[in-house]
Design brief:
The complex is a heterodimer of chains A (185) and B (176). By secondary structure, chain A is mostly beta strands. Helices cover 14% and strands 48% of the residues of chain A. In chain B, 24% of the residues are buried. Classes of the chains: A mainly beta (185), B mainly alpha (176).
Chain lengths: 185, 176
């Protein structure tokens, strides 16, 4: 009886741990944070080369998942050297004062079918705005991917002020597309 | 009886001439501007005009190949006849090559050309910095060559018209 209870207890506590994996280590080499903006009707792709991310995601308990992401704005590729340089200026990122963009998650909602809704706060150029991002979880053998895309309005964060605030030339909507790769180690 | 180019050839000639008359100085002016919304707008207008020229020049070349131009005056010296053919051949070639190098340069520099901001044209070359710079130089030099040939072309037409009193401007639809 005693032995049976112990076995049951062990099974209950150890069993989930035995096959569940919690993704905690982001693999930057296989991750990508890209974006696309529109200039005079022309779509221009770009991406950020350097960012750090902390995360915890247990597929069995997605609601308790957490993510923090910090992007080094100096690592931008905005489609041309000229645009990279321009983006650092006061009218755009004002990178000297605000060198990084930061996203901190607050809530994860499971939508089923490996789809989630990640809510949090994005801080960019000193402005913090709530953001809800759809994320698709792509399980793998050793590595899992978290893919998503959403549309930001650059003017919500004061990105492109003054003469650049005209959305006829550079559209307000910027599509952000990301793939975060993580392992359980 | 004055021999004239056909009406489509005349319309295309002046339409293309007018567009180049805008696109050329625009190209020279915009490339020295610092980055600004105005610069982005001017670049787009320049590209839209250029693609229009490419399209019209394509039509013009097809029309030229299928329709005989009016004969040159019979007493025209042999060398002038040869020069006329050479200049016209080069002009037709440049009307295609100049906008084409502009389009390819834009693709190589990573900017797709979207005609009038509505119709995206395919990128025929991959994004590549060296290729973009090379196409940029090609675009520039072909434009200088085009400018030189246009000056020669206009000067020759005016010379024949005013000094030799031959109806050269009428050939291209001007006057009676």
């Amino acid at each position: 009886m005693m032995l049976k209870s112990l076995t049951l207890l062990a099974a209950l506590t150890l069993a989930p741990a035995a096959h569940a994996i919690e993704y905690r280590s982001v693999v930057p080499a296989q991750s990508r944070i890209g974006f696309e903006f529109t200039q005079m009707g022309v779509k221009i792709p770009g991406h950020f080369k350097r960012f750090t991310a902390q995360m915890a995601f247990d597929p069995a308990k997605p609601e308790s998942a957490q993510a923090t992401l910090e992007i080094d704005l100096a690592s931008i590729d905005a489609g041309s050297p000229e645009a990279d340089e321009e983006s650092a200026g006061k009218l755009w990122f004002n990178r000297t004062a605000f060198p990084r963009a930061r996203f901190v998650s607050s809530r994860v909602r499971a939508l089923g079918n490996n789809r989630f809704e990640l809510s949090g706060t994005l801080t960019l150029k000193g402005r913090s705005r709530p953001l809800t991002i759809p994320v698709r979880y792509v399980p793998g053998k050793d590595i899992a991917f978290f893919d998503g895309s959403f549309v930001l309005k650059r003017l919500d964060f004061g990105i492109g002020e003054g003469m650049w605030a005209d959305v006829e030339t550079v559209a307000n909507e910027v599509t952000v597309k990301f793939r975060i790769a993580a392992t359980g180690k | 009886m004055i021999q004239r180019y056909t009406v489509p050839a005349v319309v295309l000639h002046w339409l293309i001439a007018g567009l180049i008359f805008v696109a050329f100085p625009l190209g020279v002016y915009m490339s020295d501007l610092p980055l600004s919304p105005t610069r982005l707008q001017l670049y787009s207008y320049h590209k839209w005009i250029g693609i229009s020229v490419l399209l019209l020049a394509g039509l013009r070349v097809v029309w030229r190949l299928t329709h005989r131009p009016p004969a040159l005056p019979g007493d025209l010296p042999r060398w002038q006849r040869a020069a006329s053919h050479a200049v016209h051949g080069l002009l037709y070639l440049l009307l295609l090559a100049v906008p084409l190098t502009g389009w390819l340069m834009s693709s190589a520099k990573g900017f797709q050309t979207v005609w009038f901001g509505v119709l995206p044209l395919p990128d025929l070359v991959e994004k590549n910095r060296e290729l973009g710079d090379a196409l940029g130089s090609a675009h520039q030099w072909l434009n200088y060559l085009l400018l030189a040939l246009v000056i020669l072309h206009v000067a020759a037409a005016l010379k024949h018209h005013f000094f030799e009193r031959q109806p050269f401007l009428q050939r291209m639809g001007l006057g009676k």
